[in-house]
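Contributing: when you submit paired examples, paste them exactly as shown. First protein:
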Amino acid sequence: GASAQLAMLNRYGEHYKALVTGTGAAPIAAFGRSVAVWDASPTHALALRVAASALPQAEQEEIYRCIESYLVRRAVCGLSRKNYNKVFAQQLRRLIEADLNAASFRKALTALTGEASRWPGDEEFRRQWLDGSVYPGRLDAPKLRTVFHRLETEIRTEKTEEPIPLALDSLDIDHILPQSWYTYWPLADGTKVSSDEALVAAPMRYMTEGVDAKSQSILKRQDAVPRIGNLTLVHYGVNRALQNHAFDAKRKALFEPSNLQLNRGLMQLAAWDEAAIEVRGEALLKAALRIW
C-alpha cells in the first residue's frame, strides 16, 4: 500500500541525494562525484537500483567502475552519447530480470556491439588516447579537468604521497606545445613556420601524394597539439603571456613551480617535441588503464 511506496521512495531518496550531490561515503556517492561531468543522467536509474540492492559494497563499486569506464572510454574514442538512454534502460531490465552481480554486468556491457553502443576495448582506447584530438576536440574543459584530476589522484596514490589532490579548478588547461607555436617553436630541422604557411598546409592532409616535406612536418605537428600527451594543468597566474613561449621558458615559469605529479616529468626534460608527446601519452595511458 501507500506506506510501502513511501518507504521505497525514502530509501531511493537517500541514494538519489548521494548520487546527485556526490556527498557521503557510500559507493553511489563516489560514483556521483566521478561521473558528474560525463552527462550521466541515463545511468541514474541503474545506479539507484544497484545502491538499493543487497549487493555487497565491493560488487556495487565494481558495477559503478564499469559504468564510468564505459562513459569515459566512449568519450575519449569520440563515440556518440545519443544511444545511452537505450543502452542503460536495457541493462536495467537485465538487472531486474536476472541475478544481479558485477561479473554478469561486466559481461553484458562487454557484449555490446556497434558504433552506437560498444564499450571500447584496450586496443581501441589506447590508439585513440595516443592519437585522438582531445582538446580542442572530443573533451570539453570540465571533462578534461576531470580526466586530469583522476590521473593525478592515481599517480599520487601510486607514489604514496598525499593521496588527495588539491582542488584543480583554479588551474588552466595548457597545451605544452602551444596552439600558436609558430613564433617560438621551429620545426625539428630548425626551420621557422609562419601561421600563413600552416594555413596553406592544412588542406594538404587530404592529399594522397605530392605533399612536400615541410608541409608534412607542419601537419604532423598540428596533429600533435590537441593530443592528451601534450596537455596538462598549470597555474598561469601572471604567466599567461608565457603560454606560447619556448619550452625552456614555460618549464621554468609553469612546470617547475607546479606540485602536480602530472608535471613532474616535464621538469627533467630539455626539449619538447612530437616524440615527447607520444612518450607522455603512453605514461598517462598506464594510469588511465588502471582507472578506466
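Second protein:
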Amino acid sequence: MSSPKVSVVICTYNQVSYIRDTVESVLAQTYQNIEIIVADDASTDGARDVLRELEESNPDRLIVIYGDTNLGIPSNINRGLSRVSGQYVAWLDGDDLMLPQKIQLQVELLENSPEACGCYHDATVFDSASGREYGSFAQLYNGTKRLRQGSIHDTLVPRYFALPSTTMCRAEFVPKHGFDVRLSEFSEFLFFTDVFVNGKVLTLDQELTRYRRHDANLTANDDFRRRSLENELVAYAIITARY
C-alpha cells in the first residue's frame, strides 16, 4: 500500500496541561508519513513554551502557528487548514489523544475504498483527573454504539454526534472556505456536511481516540450549550439552503 501524507490539524487554546500529551500521541503513531499542524489561538497559560519545545525537538514533523489574537475555534482551525499539504486530513482537539494505530487504520480503509470521501470511528471518554473511563462516546452521547455510515442522508441525523477528533477525510474535499466563521459553535457540523456530500462516509468499529472530560470542557458550560443549540439550528438552515 502507498503511504500518502496525512495532515493532522490540532486546535488549541490555553491547554498547557494537555497539549504535550496530545501532540506526543500523534508523534507516536505507527503510521509515519504525518505532518502535525498546531494552531494556537493566542494562548496565555504557558502552552506556547511547551509547543516551542516540541517544535524544536520535531522540526520535520511539527508546524506550529502562533496566533497573535484570539479568534475563536472556527477561525483558529482555518489557520491550521491553511497549511495543510497532505492527501488526507485528520483533526484532534488540544486535549484529546490518539491511540497508536488510529492513522494507519484510517488510511488503510480509505486507500482501499476510493468511493469514500472520509471515515470516522468511536472514542473512549475518560475523566482527566482520575483516568476513569466512562465508556464509548457513541454510547454515551447517542445512546448506541452503532456508528452511522453510507451517504450524507444516512449520517446527517439531528442530534447525532461524532467527534471531529475521530474523523479523517480526503483533502481534495475540504471546502476552500474551511470552517464557517459565522458559527461560533457547531461549525464542525456544517463543515463535515460540506465534505461528506462528496461521497460515502465509512466507519471503523473501534475506539481509536481518547476524549478527555474535565472542568474546562466547552461542553460542560451551560452558556456554550445554549449557544450551540442556536448555532445548530442556523447550520441546518444553511444546509437546507445550500443542498
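If you have annotations for the second protein, write them as plain sentences, like these:
The longest strand covers residues 200-213.
The helical segments are 19-27, 47-57, 73-81, 102-111, 137-142, 152-155, 187-196, 222-242.
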